[in-house]
């Protein structure tokens, strides 16, 4: 059930990708509004996750999870009935807000339910695999709904999942929360939300030029606010993000890896769907199905990686996975305007899926390893925020790279489009290679130190 929650949270980051052309015509969206349909969700989600994690820790993880589910379902209904671009973008932002409550609560519940041992490894392998496959599943489902129903069903499809989650959550979950004096860090919440929002918005503006005053201003303001946030967190008694969560070398490395993985799964896959539909002429459903080998590869690799994780620890997987993923993206960069899907797209997708499967299985386990009983909500929020903010920033960077390589033409030729898509894949491959270097440098130590042991203190259950 908790993994199903993670599925819809990740899935909603990509399910509208294939529906965007139809939604753009239906609502008369500009190209800028079209991008914000994706960015609004990731921005609200990523910027509010830390606050959502603390609310889950302090107010109660089950209660926060259920409220998040209800709000997410209502926002999905609103988005499905949108009559303008403003409506749709606002609804996507509200979806992200409630996802920021739901996601860290679900991951924190998983953490306290499986504190250590083989069961924890298995639980996190399932959770991580679902997170990894969710983006690709969203593309398939989005294509199916867009072609045979309507793009609006890409939002309404969340409603039955929310109903199942609510029923199961009420019946099966036990309440838990952090003990002690739990006060909210209001100033920290304001600065981190404003900082992340400004940073992501600045990177979005970079599509129109990195040297523009507004681009530089928003990025600089975002960095400054995040520096202020770190200063605040080092001085308040009850920080929104205890610095011990991110300054731990191994966890910090895992958060960086999640950011890069998010940029690939959210940003790079968007340009793959554009190539399939615009250049190769695939219908929405066929374009979605064409991404399915990525999901299948992740699903096949996950159980194998789980066994390897227990035997060798996470370090080999977290170094090897990004290397394999980079090779897959390099293969995708070889696309041509008149090329074959079977020869130019499929091999890269399969190799990318193998690499992502190797990476996702240990990633969240390591990101939450050794977290103090007071902090699982904050740590899980940081893990999710890393992926969403990474996806937002990655999408803006890939968009800038694409626009530069394709010549910024509004109606570019297929050759120019392919040049842009290929450049975006190369940028993503460089990011994955950097992830391997980060893993090599930071994910160090015996496997017993990298994975949880049985020394976790008890967590209050209500």
Entry summary:
One of its GO terms (cellular component) is plasma membrane. With 462 residues, the chain is mainly alpha-helical.
Please summarize the sheet with the most strands. none
Helix content: over 70%
Q: What is the CATH C level class of the largest domain, in words?
A: Mainly Alpha
Number of helices: 19
Uncertain regions spanning at least 5 consecutive residues: 453-462
Kindly provide the radius of gyration, computed on alpha-carbon positions and rounded to a whole number of angstroms. 21 Å
- Cα shape: globular
User: Hey, roughly how much beta strand do the residues contain?
Assistant: under 5%
Main location: membrane
Domain Major facilitator superfamily (MFS) profile: 1-447
InterPro entries: EmrB-like, MFS, MFS_dom, MFS_trans_sf, Sugar_transporter_CS
Protein name: DHA2 family efflux MFS transporter permease subunit
List keywords for this structure.
single chain; Growth Hormone, Chain: A; 2 domains; DHA2 family efflux MFS transporter permease subunit; transmembrane helix; cell membrane; Sugar_transporter_CS; MFS_trans_sf
């Amino acid at each position: 059930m908790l993994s199903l929650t993670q599925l819809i949270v990740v899935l909603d980051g990509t399910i509208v990708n294939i529906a965007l052309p139809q939604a753009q015509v239906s609502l008369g969206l500009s190209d800028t509004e079209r991008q914000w349909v994706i960015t609004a969700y990731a921005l609200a989600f990523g910027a509010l996750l830390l606050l959502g994690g603390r609310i889950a820790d302090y107010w109660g993880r089950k209660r926060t999870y259920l409220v998040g589910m209800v709000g997410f379902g209502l926002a999905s209904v609103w988005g499905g009935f949108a009559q303008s671009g403003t409506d749709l973008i606002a609804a996507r932002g509200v979806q992200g807000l409630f996802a920021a409550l739901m996601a860290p609560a679900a991951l924190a519940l998983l953490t306290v339910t499986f504190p250590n041992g083989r069961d924890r490894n298995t639980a996190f392998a399932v959770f991580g695999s679902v997170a990894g496959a969710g983006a690709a599943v969203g593309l398939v489902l989005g294509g199916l709904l867009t072609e045979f129903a309507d793009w609006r069903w890409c939002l309404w499809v969340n409603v039955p999942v929310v109903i199942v989650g609510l029923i199961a959550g009420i019946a099966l979950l036990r309440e838990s929360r952090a003990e002690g004096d739990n006060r909210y860090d209001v100033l920290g919440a304001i600065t981190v939300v404003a900082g992340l929002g400004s940073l992501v918005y600045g990177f979005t503006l970079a599509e129109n030029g990195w040297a523009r005053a507004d681009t530089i201003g928003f990025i600089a303001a975002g960095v400054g606010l995040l520096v202020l946030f770190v200063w605040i967190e080092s001085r308040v008694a009850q920080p929104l993000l205890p610095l011990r969560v991110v300054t731990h070398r191994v966890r910090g490395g895992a958060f960086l890896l999640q950011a890069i993985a998010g940029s690939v799964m959210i940003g790079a896959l968007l340009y793959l769907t554009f190539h399939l539909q615009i250049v190769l002429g695939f219908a929405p459903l066929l374009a979605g199905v064409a991404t399915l080998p990525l999901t299948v590869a992740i699903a096949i690799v996950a159980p194998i990686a789980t066994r390897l994780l227990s035997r060798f620890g996470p370090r080999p997987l977290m170094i090897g996975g990004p290397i394999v993923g980079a090779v897959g993206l390099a293969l995708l960069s070889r696309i041509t305007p008149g090329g074959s899907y079977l020869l130019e797209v499929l091999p890269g997708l399969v190799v990318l899926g193998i690499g992502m499967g190797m990476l996702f299985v240990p990633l969240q386990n390591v990101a939450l390893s050794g977290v103090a009983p007071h902090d699982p909500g904050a740590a899980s929020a940081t893990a999710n925020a890393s992926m969403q903010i990474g996806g937002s920033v990655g999408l803006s960077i890939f968009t800038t790279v694409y626009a530069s390589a394709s010549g910024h033409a509004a109606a570019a030729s297929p050759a120019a489009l392919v040049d842009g898509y290929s450049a975006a894949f190369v940028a993503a491959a460089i990011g994955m290679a950097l992830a391997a270097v980060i893993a090599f440098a930071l994910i160090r130590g015996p496997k017993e130190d990298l994975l949880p042991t049985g020394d976790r203190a008890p967590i209050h259950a209500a």
